[in-house]
Design a protein that fits this description.
- It comes from Sparus aurata (Gilthead sea bream).
- This protein has 123 residues and is mainly alpha-helical.
- It has two domains: 55 residues; 39 residues.
- The protein contains three helices and no strands.
- The relative contact order is 0.08.
């Protein structure tokens, strides 16, 4: 099979997420090491680097969870869409029947004579 298929793309994404996880851990470690040895005196810079490292680490973990460790996205979306469409179908039927009731009431109201009008007048 040619590289570029589903399996190759999936493995490439998993590898990329592992690299991002290592880079995030490296950022956190270097920032802590720099603060511990007094190489960087600004707490704002250290905090920013650690925040970026934690963010990158969390994003890479979410990426790894989403690529194979659990259900595929298509299966999860299909199950969710099936449940949502069942609920939406019921809601749509309810409102369609109320619309039919509204049309029936409008026709009935339209065909009634006005009690304040002249009783000898035609409609």
């Amino acid at each position: 099979m040619v590289c570029g298929g589903f399996t190759c793309s999936k493995n490439a994404l998993c590898s990329l997420n592992v690299v991002y996880m290592l880079v995030g851990l490296l950022l956190i470690g270097v920032a802590a090491w720099g603060k511990g040895f007094g190489l960087v005196s600004s707490i704002h810079i250290i905090g920013g680097v650690i925040a970026v490292g934690v963010f990158l680490l969390l994003i890479s973990i979410v990426g790894l969870i989403g690529k194979g460790f659990c259900y595929t996205c298509g299966d999860m979306m299909l199950n969710h869409a099936t449940e949502a469409l069942k609920i939406l179908g019921g809601v749509g039927l309810f409102f369609s029947f109320t619309e039919i009731l509204g049309v029936w009431l409008a026709v009935r109201y339209r065909n009634q004579k006005d009690p304040r009008a002249n009783p000898s007048a035609f409609l």
